[in-house]
Design goal:
Elements: H1 4-21, H2 25-36, H3 55-91, H4 110-124, E1 128-129, E2 135-137, H5 138-141, H6 153-156, E3 166-168, H7 174-183, E4 188-197, E5 209-219, H8 224-238, E6 245-252, E7 255-264, E8 281-290, H9 292-297, E9 306-313, H10 314-322, H11 335-346
Parallel strand pairs: 1-4
Antiparallel strand pairs: 2-3, 4-5, 5-9, 6-7, 7-8, 8-9
Bound molecules: phenylalanine.
């Protein structure tokens, strides 16, 4: 055999006509496997080169034929692939003019809205937000706050006990001792929001569970004037630009002096109305200068350091700010209350 060209051309033409007839990617792939794969009918012809007289001419004829088959096959395969892609692009196109699905948007419980507002106000004054445990020990909830066992103040803050020493915290003041322990004698400026639990009758304004935000500042030269200015700024941001703050003498075992804090009525601006029960003032929180014993127990020298603390009820602030009449509404998950509240906020 010397006419290698016509020998290979014959097979080549056969394969080319098969390619010509093929009408799908699958058929082309089948042809490719049958003739051009390693053991394919065309590929194996190369082994005959051993018997060829003119190996160079044989190789050339083989390569030329194979290149032509390959090129034709790839071209057709690519055409099919392109057609398939165009088809699926057409099918999968999205009609952006169709109306979309409507989702019902949830509404935030007012409690969380006000909690965030209070946090923002204090963060704006340079406070950091901390958290503390809801189940805590007698040591942090009472003893380190100058309320030893058998102290009468424990009566008002009776709560649920897990065992002899673990209990549901009755106020967020418990975080004061935790934070002081962590700060190891360094200055402190924090607020801590969280749940509290207390022996309280459940009525329109009281609940056995409610939430407070505790504030604590400890540094050199902190005084009662700083506390008043801070709370006045808070009241002005939260209630009314012209809010004023009034301190009334009070008692907490962990502060000395202790104060009950009133704000001027944001409804009548001091004239007297039902919101302020005719007095022009509304009681809003408890506060005071950190008691020297509390500082000492947590490793601060009261001769060098002083501080103030305050505790404000989140539900109470929300009720005053938005005229909610019953604290229990916060916990009942009644969508009508939340919707009604949202209308009030938008007004
Ligand atoms: N812990 C007090 C309460 O729950 C509030 C308070 C906090 C008072 C900080 C003084 C200082 O009633």
């Amino acid at each position: 055999m010397t006419d290698y060209k016509s020998f290979f051309d014959e097979i080549k033409n056969k394969v080319l006509s098969l390619i010509e007839e093929a009408s799908s990617i699958e058929e082309i792939t089948e042809i490719k496997n049958k003739y051009l794969s390693k053991k394919g009918e065309f590929s194996v012809l190369m082994s005959k080169i051993r018997e060829a007289e003119d190996k160079k001419a044989f190789g050339e004829a083989f390569n030329n034929a194979r290149n032509e088959i390959e090129a034709t096959l790839e071209a057709k395969l690519n055409r099919f692939k392109e057609e398939k892609l165009n088809e699926s692009l057409k099918k999968e196109s999205v009609d952006i003019t169709l109306p979309g699905n409507n989702y019902k948007k949830g509404i935030e419980n007012p409690f969380y809205k006000v909690k965030k507002e209070i946090e923002d106000i204090f963060v704006g004054m340079g406070y950091t937000v901390e958290t503390g445990p809801e189940i805590d020990s007698d040591k942090y909830v009472f003893e380190l706050l100058n309320i030893p066992k058998d102290h009468p103040a424990r009566d008002m803050q009776d709560t649920l006990y897990i065992d002899d020493t673990l209990l549901l915290r009755s106020h967020t003041s418990s975080v004061q001792a935790h934070i002081m322990e962590k700060a190891k004698g360094k200055p402190i400026k924090i607020i801590c929001p969280g749940k509290t639990f207390r022996r309280d009758d459940d009525d329109m304004t009281h609940s056995h569970q409610f939430a407070q935000i505790e504030g604590l500042v400890i540094d050199k030269n902190i005084n009662l004037g700083n506390l008043k200015a801070t709370l006045e700024l808070f009241a002005q941001k939260m209630f009314s630009k012209d809010s004023k703050v009034r301190f009334r003498s009070s008692y907490f075992p962990f502060t000395e002096p202790s104060v009950e804090v009133d704000i001027s009525c944001f409804n009548c601006h001091g004239k007297g109305c039902p919101t302020c029960k005719g007095t022009g003032w509304i009681e809003i929180l408890g506060a005071g200068m950190v008691h020297p014993n509390v500082l000492k127990m947590s490793g601060y020298d009261p001769e060098i350091y002083s501080g103030y603390a305050f505790g404000v009820g989140i539900e109470r602030v929300t009720m005053l700010r938005y005229g909610v009449d019953d604290i229990r509404k916060f916990y009942q998950s009644d969508i009508r209350f939340i919707e009604e509240f949202n209308k009030k906020v938008e007004e």
